[in-house]
Amino acid sequence: MRKLIFVLLAVFLIVGVSLAEGKKYGKGVTLKEKTKISDIFANPEEFTGKKVLVEGMIVDVCSKRGCWMEIASDKEFEKIKIKVEDGEIVFPLEEKGKTALVEGTIEKIEMTKEQAIERAKHHAEEVGQKFDPASVTGPEVFYQIRGLGAVIK
Amino acid sequence: MKWRKWIRILHRDIGYLATGLTVIYAISGVAVNHVDEWNPNYSIERSTIKLDSIPSLEKEAMIKYILNEIGETGKIKNSFRPAPDKLDIFVEGNTISVNYTTKEVSQEKMASRTVIRESNFLHLNAPKKVWTYVADVFAVALAFLAISGLFMIKGKNGITGRGAWMTALGILLPIIFLIIYYY
User: Fold this and answer.
1) Strand, coil or helix: what is A49?
2) Disulfide engineering: B74 pairs with which of A37, B92, B112, B134, CB 3.0-4.6 Å?
3) Could you say which DSSP state residue B9 is in?
4) Could you say which residues from 84 to 103 on chain B have a Cβ atom under 8 Å away from some Cβ of chain A?
5) pLDDT of residue A89 exceeding 50
6) Are B61 and B39 in contact (CB under 8 A)?
7) CATH architecture of structural domain B42-112
8) B90 φ/ψ angles, rounded to the nearest 5 degrees
């Protein structure tokens, strides 16, 4: 009986510790040093192609497939998109508002005006908003993180 | 014949074992098949109201004011300002977006689709790890059930009679769609 209680306590302790550390997605995180999202936006070319570890509040999640999420920067009014391969990692919608540690590679995405319109239209459909093609004024360049793993706390 | 008896026994018992997963995969199959028309994991209800006015308040006071205006009593998780005139409030099961300029308050209430979401989780192999191998074994079991089913009975309704035509029809169906849509 004592052994059983000991085993159960050990299991609860392990589960408790792992939950306190957060829920792991994909490959989790391996880097130790965090990069500020504001630093990435301040000098994106320097970070393009590099693997980074960022931390921030989850402010949006792909509601259909969980294939992307956006996390807030350390700087006000700024956020970065984390895109993952469909099905490889699925971010749950309930995680909005929680803090995520994300590891991935900075990508530079260049789009023609037509591509940018299509992307904005698709995004508007996903989040159930009205779309005005006039809101896209020309070709777009933006930076995102190709997510490899994450821990959500 | 003895081999046919064994095929029937194996088909029966593997069939019993595969029932649970087959139902799960069938539910999820239909759910994710229509991903362009509905959300297979969540039920999402979106609404927007326009307030007569929005007072100038500090962030915390503003959150309380907005939640009071829309009658939201859920637990506040966090908040974010995506732009100087916008505020997002994250409440359990609800995301509230406030636009100070248009005075619009949008809500995105979300609830998990019980059973379907769990089925999708397994069907799309979200757990990975050991589940990958369980799903592989299930796939092999399904292949065995399909092939063993062909030889379970003999005679005019077996694979040498009616069964041959029915099987050919079943194989022809995906081929027709491949010719139409793929090639």
Assistant:
1) coil
2) B92
3) H
4) 84, 88, 90, 93, 95
5) yes
6) no
7) 2-Layer Sandwich (3.30)
8) -100, 115
pLDDT for the residue numbered A7: 59
Average pLDDT for chain A? 88
Q: Report the chain A residue with the minimal C-alpha distance to residue B86.
A: A77
pLDDT of A16 > 60? The answer is no
Give the residue from B44, B78, B117, B118 with the most A CB atoms within 10 Å of its CB, the best one to mutate.
B78
DSSP A137: -
Q: Do A66 and B41 touch (CB under 8 A)?
A: yes
Measure the CA–CA gap between A107 and A55, rounded to whole angstroms: 17
- Give the pLDDT confidence of A100-140 residue by residue, as tens digits: 999 999 999 999 999 999 988 888 877 777 888 988 999 99
Calpha distance A98→B93 (Å, rounded): 13
Gap from B179 CA to chain A (nearest CA, Å)? 27
**Among B44, B47, B77, B80, which would you mutate to test the A interface (most chain A Cβ atoms within 10 Å of its Cβ)?**
B80
Q: Give, as one character, the DSSP assignment of residue A98.
A: S
Q: What is the full DSSP assignment across A31-46?
A: --S---HHHHHHSHHH
Query: Can you read off the two tokens belonging to residue B9?
Result: 């026994």
Nearest-Cα residue of chain B relative to residue A60: B95
Q: Where are the domains of chain B?
A: 2-39+115-181, 42-112
Q: Where are the alpha helices (DSSP H) in chain A?
A: 2-21, 37-42, 44-47, 113-127
Residue of B nearest to A129 (CA): B46
Residue B39 touches partner A, C-beta closer than 8 Å: yes
Q: Residue A22 carries which DSSP code?
A: -
Say yes or no for a CB contact (<8 Å) between B82 and A128: no
Distance in Å, alpha carbon of A87 to nearest chain B alpha carbon:
7
Name residue B5's amino acid.
K
Residue with tokens 């997605």: A25
pLDDT, tens only, B2-46: 899 999 999 999 999 999 999 999 999 999 999 888 999 999 999
